[in-house]
């Protein structure tokens, strides 16, 4: 419960804060400190249990936080229009805080949910809160703990009206890439959380691709994790330059203090997740967008986390010979190129999902701006994102990112190496689901003709689902169980 000291501070600090934060766990406390460190901000803070508020006050007196012990007190501490960022446990926690804030806020005030909400929840919440006259903004915030403190990439949705007040505040705390704050008004209602979800999906694919690259190099060349760390550090100076490549080198170099073994060999090989990758795949399935690289990354984590199945399958046969690499340097370069090509596919698929989501939900999302705000502060930050921004600037109607001249050239340059790596992995029995599915997607996309024609024939055979012909308009059905003549169908099923 609040201390006497807090009560005294409240009386003397009424309505002085221009921004408030609700939820002071890892993310909220760091975001509050980030806000407090920027010129002109005075930050009100509230947490359900007062202990976290007190801890933050005690550890960071320099921040000048204005603490509140109740939602009412929190509202009274904020200048109008009140602006509060919620950083609490996604789901029920977020709903509980919104309900409480709606009771004490007034029309024109702004509630921002900075947690990892499912975008359809954000659409629902925005609609409900809007009826009270209060603005609700779902904002994706990427960059974890460190980003929240030093500058995250921020993807806000919500109304144009709330962006007027919120924009300058979010710009002040966002990461900066090449002089630009990594924040843009993504679109209305759930657009921000939708784009954050896709960001996380791409992150899954990127991490899985890097993990496959590491595994192939280790098994193919016998190099140690520390030696492979050097390779990743080298790659980080080229076209693969990115935060994920950089931290991969750090993780591979780490030695376990207890055993003296590389830490990566001591960590249990069962990858967890918090669900945003699954959401990306589920949503993309609903939208009809093949995000196969992201899906394979999610499945790879699921497979890794099935110890009983893995134990039961361990004795199943594989190829006689493991990966035999004649020229280690050439193989490593092939893997680098395969990684780059597959990464292009992962981003291309992610942007396809953004385009489809924008169309489905009526959001005006500027793809180039999204790539630009991912250049800093977030987990997938990378040099490469500049090329995506340029591609959409040159052709805003670009139908597939991989077909933009820069990326088409990159894939043309790397595709032979990509194929060699996928072949070598399959022959040696080394799982490379993200590399190989990305290549299959690429070949499917560029194919003149796909066996989908046969699938249509099968569908027509067993379900009279009809088909179209290449040589004339109309919808057709073959009388499979009759004389097998073709008739023109009136109604497509
Ligand atoms: N951790 C990350 O790296 C990361 C990165 C990006 C986004 N996010 C998102 O940011 C949000 C915050 O993450 P976090 O890791 O800092 O915290 P968290 O562990 O997800 O949530 C803990 C916070 O939620 C509060 N809370 C839970 N239920 C509540 C309720 N019914 N009413 C009021 N408050 C409630 C807790 O209050 P008490 O102290 O009273 O229990 C505590 O402040 C989440 O949505 C998370 O998904 C996290």
UniProtKB/TrEMBL annotation:
Q: Which GO terms describe its molecular function?
A: NADP binding; phosphogluconate dehydrogenase (decarboxylating) activity
The entry marks the following residues as binding substrate, namely 116, 142-144, 199-200, 204, 274, 301, 459, 465
Q: In which pathway does it act?
A: Carbohydrate degradation; pentose phosphate pathway; D-ribulose 5-phosphate from D-glucose 6-phosphate (oxidative stage): step 3/3
Residues annotated as domain 6-phosphogluconate dehydrogenase C-terminal = 192-481
**Which transformation does this protein catalyse, written as a reaction?**
6-phospho-D-gluconate + NADP(+) = D-ribulose 5-phosphate + CO2 + NADPH
Active site, UniProt feature: 196 (proton acceptor), 203 (proton donor)
Task: For this UniProt record, give its keywords in alphabetical order, as a comma-separated list.
Answer: Gluconate utilization, NADP, Oxidoreductase, Pentose shunt
> Per the UniProt record, which EC number(s) apply here?
1.1.1.44
Q: Which family does it belong to?
A: Belongs to the 6-phosphogluconate dehydrogenase family.
- Name of protein: 6-phosphogluconate dehydrogenase, decarboxylating
Q: Which gene encodes it?
A: gndA
């Amino acid at each position: 419960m609040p201390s006497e000291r807090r009560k005294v501070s409240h009386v003397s600090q009424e309505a002085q804060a221009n921004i408030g934060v609700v939820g002071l766990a890892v993310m909220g406390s760091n975001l509050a400190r980030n806000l407090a460190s920027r010129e002109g901000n005075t930050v009100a803070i509230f947490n359900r249990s007062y202990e976290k508020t007190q801890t933050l006050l005690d550890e960071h007196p320099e921040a000048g936080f204005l603490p509140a012990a109740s939602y009412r007190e929190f509202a009274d501490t904020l200048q109008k229009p009140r602006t509060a960022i919620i950083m609490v446990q996604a789901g029920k926690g977020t709903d509980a805080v919104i309900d409480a804030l709606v009771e004490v806020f007034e029309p024109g005030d702004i509630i921002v949910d900075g947690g990892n909400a499912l975008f359809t929840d954000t659409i629902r919440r925005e609609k409900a809160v809007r009826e009270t006259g209060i603005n609700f903004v779902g904002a994706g915030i990427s960059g974890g703990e460190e980003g929240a403190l030093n500058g995250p990439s921020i993807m806000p949705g919500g109304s144009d009206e709330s962006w007027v007040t919120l924009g300058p505040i979010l710009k002040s705390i966002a990461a900066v890439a090449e002089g630009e704050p990594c924040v843009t008004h993504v679109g209305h209602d759930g657009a921000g959380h939708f784009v954050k979800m896709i960001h996380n999906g791409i992150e899954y694919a990127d991490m899985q691709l890097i993990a496959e690259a590491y595994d192939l190099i280790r098994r193919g060349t016998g190099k140690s994790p520390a030696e492979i760390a050097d390779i990743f550090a080298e790659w980080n100076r080229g076209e693969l330059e990115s935060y994920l490549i950089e931290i991969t080198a750090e993780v591979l170099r780490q030695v376990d203090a207890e055993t003296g073994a590389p830490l990566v060999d001591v960590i249990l090989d069962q990858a967890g997740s918090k669900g945003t990758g699954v959401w990306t795949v589920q949503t993309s399935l609903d939208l009809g967008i093949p995000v196969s690289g992201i899906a394979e990354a999610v499945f790879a984590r699921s497979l890794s986390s099935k110890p009983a199945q893995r134990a039961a399958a361990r004795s199943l046969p594989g190829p006689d010979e493991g990966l035999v690499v004649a020229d280690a340097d050439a193989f490593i370069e092939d893997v680098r190129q395969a990684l780059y090509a597959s990464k292009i596919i992962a981003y291309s698929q992610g942007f396809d999902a953004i385009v489809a989501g924008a169309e489905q939900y009526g959001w005006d999302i500027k793809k180039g701006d999204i790539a630009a705000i991912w250049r800093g502060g977030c987990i997938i930050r990378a040099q490469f994102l500049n090329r995506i921004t340029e591609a959409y600037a040159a052709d805003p109607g670009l139908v597939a990112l991989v077909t933009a001249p820069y990326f088409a050239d990159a894939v043309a340059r790397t595709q032979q190496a990509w194929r060699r790596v996928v072949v070598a992995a399959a022959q040696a029995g080394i799982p490379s689901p993200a590399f190989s599915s990305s290549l299959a997607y690429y070949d499917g996309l560029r194919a003149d003709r796909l066996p989908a024609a046969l699938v249509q024939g099968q569908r027509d055979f067993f379900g009279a689902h009809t088909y179209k012909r290449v040589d004339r308009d109309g919808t057709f059905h073959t009388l499979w169980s009759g004389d097998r003549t073709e008739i023109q169908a009136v109604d497509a099923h």
